[in-house]
Each structure stands twice: as structure tokens, then as C-alpha cells.
Write a structure and sequence with these properties.
6 helices, 37% helix, six-stranded parallel beta sheet, Rossmann fold, alpha/beta
């Protein structure tokens, strides 16, 4: 059961993962959590680094799709300035949102990656969907109140992961 939480990669920031690295691993689409992964939960504008990374993905022909548990209205408002497609009410840690997005693009499980900042939702959902995953550090230290319980439980999962997988470490990018 513990392996269900283990990310394929652990990268400090998604912005350091280049389209070339993704393509080298056969990845043709990036699915991403929204809050504290792409944008700070309290800053829907995003950072210059995010906008640069999104432009690089677009130039490389790699779609970026937001997979969020939030309502359609909340996600639409949050990604309005980013102009990103999304799947709302994804029910993470279940695989529904990831599977819907993957099938909509007509891609195999090996051709997508799920990016997120939480073991309890994002990494578990990726495993449930049978896709690879990238765990990133949260953009900011604070979370919405709905995430605080997950962070509390995550501490215990982290301890077990590190005990069973001592080589688990943060990387600068996928090639580190």
C-alpha cells in the first residue's frame, strides 16, 4: 500500500522540468494540480516562471491540463488568466479526473504525467490511474483550510516512505 504514495520523481519546482526532458520520457501531456502546484492558492495570476514554463510546453506541443478537486466555478476563475483547460471535481485521490483527461486526449497511460504537491491526493490519484507522477514542493508554506488535514496525515506517510525508500530525494529536474 505504501508504494501507492511514492512519486515517480520528486522535483523541487515543476518550472525546472523542460519539455525536452518530458519528451525524453515519452510524456506527451502534463496534468497538474492547481493550488500550491501551478499557482499559490491565494494568487491566481501565477508567476513569471509559470508563464515561461507554460509557453515552453505550448511551443513543444505538450498540453497542460489542470486536474482539480475544486468546483468548476472555482477552477474556471482561478485559471481564467492562464487560459488552461481543466477537469474540475476530479475526486482525487480517485483516478476519475486523470482518466477522463487522458482519454479525452487519446493518450496511453505511459504518455501522461500527473504533477502535484500532495502525496495524499495527487500521488495516490496518479497511482490509481496508472500514470507516472511528479511530486513538487508547495509554492507557498500556507494551505487552504481544506488541505491542512492532508498535510497532517502526510507527515506519517513521509516517515514510512523514507524508511522503505531511503534513496527517495528531491531533484532539480527529471535528469538529476
Amino acid at each position: 500500500m505504501l508504494e501507492e504514495f511514492k512519486p515517480t520523481w520528486m522535483v523541487k519546482s515543476i518550472y525546472s522540468v523542460s519539455p525536452e526532458q518530458l519528451k525524453a520520457h515519452g510524456i506527451r501531456a502534463v496534468f497538474s494540480d492547481l493550488d500550491n502546484t501551478l499557482i499559490a492558492w491565494n494568487n491566481p495570476e501565477g508567476t513569471p516562471e509559470l508563464h515561461q514554463w507554460m509557453a515552453e510546453l505550448e511551443d513543444a506541443g505538450i498540453p497542460l491540463i489542470v486536474i482539480s478537486n475544486n468546483s468548476k466555478e472555482r477552477v474556471a476563475k482561478a485559471v481564467e488568466t492562464l487560459k488552461l483547460p481543466f477537469m474540475s471535481r476530479s475526486l482525487k485521490p480517485l483516478s476519475f479526473g486523470i482518466t477522463r483527461a487522458r482519454k479525452k486526449l487519446g493518450l496511453s497511460k505511459d504518455e501522461v504525467v500527473m504533477v502535484g504537491d500532495q502525496l495524499m491526493t495527487d500521488m495516490l490519484a496518479a497511482h490509481q490511474a496508472g500514470v507516472r507522477s511528479i511530486l513538487v514542493k508547495p509554492i507557498i508554506k500556507t494551505d487552504k483550510w481544506t488541505t491542512k488535514m492532508n498535510r497532517f496525515l502526510e507527515k506519517y506517510v513521509w516517515r514510512s516512505l523514507h524508511r522503505h525508500y531511503p534513496d527517495l530525494k528531491w531533484q532539480e529536474d527529471l535528469n538529476d
